[in-house]
Amino acid sequence: MVFAVWEPILPTDWSAPGTSALHRLNDRRVRQFWDPGHLVAAAIKKAEASGQLHPECCEREGFLWDLSAAYAPGARWNDRLPEPVLLSGPVVEVAAALESVVAKDK
User: 8: which residues sit within 8 A by CB, 6+ positions away?
Assistant: First the structure.
């Protein structure tokens, strides 16, 4: 399963993504979410601050964004985030690596 989290970063990001943006991830395994409060990015940022995770990029105005994170099947987010298989970006630059991780789970 792939979870795509959209969040407002750019001045044009004033509402949830429209149909054309959502269709960029046209795969039945993808579930897309709008996160206007940056809750997912904040959880990853908190794990980074504690030394648990180290994203290789992707911060803008204090928020992590345009970041790919892939976790092993069965990974659970709780008080401590699971170790990602991939945590990098921007998405366009790691698309092939992300595709490879997802393909291994087919």
Answer: 14, 36
> 45-50 contacts: CB < 8 A, separation 24 or more?
47/80, 47/81
pTM: 0.79
Q: pLDDT by residue (tens digit) across 7-58?
A: 999 888 889 999 998 998 888 888 899 999 999 998 888 888 887 778 878 8
The first and second tokens of residue 74, run together, are 């069965």
How many domains would you assign to the chain? 1
Contacts from 59-68 at CB under 8 Å and sequence distance 24+? 60/9, 61/9, 63/7, 63/9, 63/38, 65/7, 65/9, 65/41, 66/9, 66/90, 66/91, 67/41, 67/91, 68/94, 68/95, 68/97, 68/98
Token pair recorded at residue 53:
């995770």
